[in-house]
Amino acid sequence: MNTQTRPLTAKKSSQLEHGDIVHEHGMRVRLDRLISRSGEPGDSEVFAWAGTVLNAAEVREAGHVPASFIRRWQGPYLVQEDYWTVQGNDMAPLWTVEEHARLTPGEYNAAWHAVEGAAGEEGADPGTVLHAVLRALGIAPPRTA
Predict the structure, then answer these.
(1) What residues does 77 pair with on adjacent strands?
(2) How many CB atoms lie within 10 A of CB 28?
(3) pTM
């Protein structure tokens, strides 16, 4: 079912981050935004993330969850057909998460210069563009020393 090739790691609910790809019920769910954080810090603090099911067509076809469960509505309007909420606290089992790809400093520098050259429009910010692209691809920049 999951055709991804990235290594997997385990994270507690409090360790989940924007852009993480969490495996749940046969789904690969990218965490798009933290929608709720409640309770006292520690084991009882509850986190809820709005996410996009990256393999929604496969999930619907395989019947891992009912198709109606991965839809988001605003009133009578269907606004997303690949939606899932990831929620839990640190007492829950660990989440299976795909590890982010990590660029070498040289790769990061080359990508920066490529975007900088392409972003010649007035007011364009290459750093913003680059980081948005990296986030969209699930790629983390190199760690700083």
Answers:
(1) 74
(2) 23
(3) 0.71
Yes or no: say if 51 and 82 are a contact pair by the CB < 8 Å rule: no
43-54 residue pLDDT tens: 789 999 999 999
With a CB cutoff of 8 Å and minimum separation 6, the contacts of 131 are 141
Is residue 130 helix, strand or coil? helix
- 3-state secondary structure string across 17-77: CCCCEEEECCEEEEEEEEEEEECCCCCCCEEEEEEEECCHHHHHHHCCCCHHHHCEEECCE
Phi-psi domain of 138 (left: phi exceeds 0; alpha: psi -120 through 50; beta: other): left
* Per-residue pLDDT reduced to its tens digit, 70-100: 999 999 999 999 999 999 999 989 999 998 8
pLDDT of residue 5: 65
Backbone angles phi, psi at 125, to 5 degrees: -115, 105
| Distance in angstroms (rounded) separating the CA atoms of residues 89 and 74 | 27
Alpha-carbon distance of 13 to 15, in angstroms, equals 5
